[in-house]
Specification:
Blueprint: H1 5-17, E1 20-21, H2 22-29, H3 33-45, E2 49-53, E3 63-67, H4 69-79, H5 97-119, E4 124-130, E5 137-139, E6 149-151, E7 155-161, E8 164-173, H6 179-194, H7 197-202, E9 208-213, H8 216-228, E10 235-239, E11 251-253, E12 262-263
Parallel strand pairs: 8-9, 9-10
Antiparallel strand pairs: 1-3, 2-3, 4-7, 5-6, 7-8, 11-12
Helix pairs in contact: 1-4, 2-3, 6-8
Length: 266
């Protein structure tokens, strides 16, 4: 197979995201569905990508792509690292359905963010870090009920605008967490800010926590839980909508203390 530069970028993107749906790859790299399907089929047939199909009650599900052996070899070449430094093993492609849905939802926000930035030349994505141990921190429990609380964001990213740099922690909520547990996450972020741990770890002065919920109703419940423990404008909320794509940079965000929708930078 003669790999194109686009093929290589697709493989690298799947590696960085771990899992991408077919339509997510299409939105990032293609303008025609037929061309996308042809290239992905070739990459699958030649062992660069693996296909995963989620079980459905009726019809067929959209393919989800993960890295395969030849893809891991290609990533090592592209990043100019030893093959054993590539963070991939075949067993990593076998995961529980709930985790897969959560991961794809995180990646959906990332894809939407990239698409929006492409249209707005005044904004640059400085970095995007997926959920990993390096992002996790322990903070003291202000109520003293536990030894510590944990800050463990789903993603961390920075944006450069004409006004300066902004930093965000991302939480994607699929509705499986109790409100009590979510409240502890908010308490942890408040302590994280109060103790200045983020300054020591990353060097920036401020941050915001973005929560994307699985539904409008769930979003409202999360906002209420955050408001009840004193969360304010540091926390912003929105919800995925099946009928339309989100504009992460637009006026789609609600704080716990305001009922009017806010722009990400206001």
């Amino acid at each position: 197979m003669n790999l194109t530069e686009r093929d290589k970028r697709i493989v690298l993107s799947v590696y960085k995201h771990r899992f991408l749906k077919r339509d997510q790859i299409e939105r990032l790299f293609f303008t025609q569905t037929s061309t996308c399907n042809q290239r992905l089929m070739r990459l699958y047939q030649h062992g660069y990508l693996e296909r995963i199909f989620k079980p459905v009650s009726f019809g067929s599900s959209q393919a989800v792509y993960a890295l395969d052996k030849n893809g891991a070899d290609l990533v090592a070449q592209m990043l100019e690292i030893n093959r054993n430094k590539v963070n991939w093993k075949r067993k990593n492609n076998k995961i529980e359905l709930l985790f897969l849905d959560h991961k794809l939802a995180i990646n959906e926000f990332n894809v939407l963010l990239q698409q929006t930035i492409e249209k707005d030349r005044g904004i640059e994505l400085l970095f995007w870090r997926n959920e990993s141990n390096e992002l996790n921190s322990r903070v003291p429990d202000p109520d003293g009920k536990r030894k510590y609380l944990t800050v463990s964001p789903d993603a961390f990213f920075g944006l450069q605008t004409q006004q300066g740099k902004s930093y965000f922690f991302l939480e994607v909520d699929m509705g499986t967490m109790t409100l009590a547990r979510f409240s502890n996450k908010i308490r942890a972020y408040k302590q994280y800010w109060k103790k200045g741990i983020y300054k020591e770890k990353f060097g920036f002065r401020s941050f915001r926590v973005l929560t994307v919920a699985s539904s409008e109703r769930r979003m409202m419940n999360l906002r209420k839980a955050t408001s009840e423990i004193g969360g304010k404008n540091m926390f912003l909320f929105t919800a995925f909508k099946k009928e339309e794509e989100l504009d992460p940079l637009g006026s789609i965000w609600l704080s716990p203390i305001q009922n009017s929708y806010l722009h990400l930078f206001r």
